[in-house]
User: Fold this.
Amino acid sequence: MEYSNVMQKPRIEKVTLNIGAGESGEKLVKAEKLLQKITNKKTIRTFSKHKVPAWNLRKGEPIGCKVTLRGKEAEEILKRMLYAKDNKLTEDNFDKAGNMAFGIHEYIDIQGLKYDPDIGILGLNVNTTLEKSGYRTKRRRLNQRSPSKKHTITRQESIDFIKEKFGVEIEAET
Assistant:
């Protein structure tokens, strides 16, 4: 797609890899080890916000982990994750704001990773935030403003961007 202004071209802001273990303990440690193996980065734990007695969850208990990547690292990881999905996604993987999310059932599908008996079989979620350069006006510290319509990314723009940049086949919604 042709843009009259370079600032209106979509780009990858960040890629977040997330594993929800659902409990603290051995499963969470395995999830952290897997994310470190995939990205070579330190993981951050996520904590429960509410007490859920049915699931034996206490407020503030660690239940998952995540890694956020930006720049070239984000693009490289995203290529590997899309390869694990055979470069096929559906339109359901994109939200109204142009962000993309999909899951990988088993980490052994990821290019360059082999089964590790210490980890077992785990899956993970891949969330990609896409935006245009002018969108920073929403997050800046001084003189915050909501971005103009020219600088907000639509669902169709993000689908076209992912198709063009990564050669992904997008299937219609079912």
Q: What stands out?
A: The radius of gyration is 18 Å.
